[in-house]
Design goal:
The chain is elongated. The protein starts with 15 loop residues before the first helix and ends in a 15-residue tail after the last helix. Helices cover 67% and strands 0% of the residues. The chain is mainly α. α1 packs antiparallel against α2, α1 runs antiparallel to α4 and α4 packs antiparallel against α5. The protein is built from five helices and no strands. The longest helix is centred in the N-terminal third of the chain and has 31 residues. The structure holds fe (ii) ion. Fe (ii) ion binds next to loops.
């Protein structure tokens, strides 16, 4: 169901339909983005393993970037005359990310859980670039492009930790030597 809002007046010369569509897209991604921010700290606090300190500190950087992106999306909503929805209740009801597991500790498990959720967010944002453009709101498309570029970089950092795993040397049949 579309969350049609009563818009606050603005002198911005944009059609109200373009504003409505952009506000709805931005609030959806704001819910996802706050969820991403929360799970990033959840992993930062709880992961355990030999690469701990590097990933622990990397995730703090991710959180700072995501907080800034969330602020930009929320403020674009209000600049368009809408209401930004950023409460815990809104995130719970609107985020499309799967609940983050609270019973995992291994670095590989946290990386996999983050990659699963960052990629859902990244792909939704990428789709929304075109959605906002088609709705006639290029500034929101530009903001989604900024968010998309940032989240793709973070996804790359996460995936790079998993693509050349250390551990047993693999032979041809895929079973490790012990
Ligand atoms: Fe910390």
């Amino acid at each position: 169901m579309a969350d049609t809002q009563r818009l606050h007046p603005t002198r911005t010369e944009l059609k109200s339909n373009a504003r409505q569509v952009a506000i709805e897209l931005l609030n959806k991604r704001l819910a996802d983005g706050i969820d991403v921010a929360l799970i990033t700290k959840q992993a930062h606090w709880n992961l355990k393993g030999p690469q701990f300190i590097g990933i622990h500190e990397m995730l703090d950087g991710f959180r700072a970037i995501q907080d800034d992106l969330n602020d930009k999306m929320a403020e674009r909503v209000t600049a368009l005359g809408g209401t930004a929805f950023g409460t815990a209740q809104d995130v719970t009801s609107k985020s499309q990310l799967k609940p983050y597991p609270t019973d995992i500790y291994k670095i590989a498990d946290h990386l996999a859980a983050l990659i699963d959720r960052y990629s859902v967010f990244a792909n939704a944002v990428r789709q929304n670039i075109d959605d906002a453009d088609e709705a006639g709101e290029p500034d929101t498309a530009d903001l989604f492009t900024e968010v998309s570029r940032a989240i793709d970089k973070q996804l790359w950092f996460l995936e790079a930790h998993t693509q050349e795993p250390t551990g047993p040397i693999r032979d041809g049949d895929g079973k490790g030597h012990r």
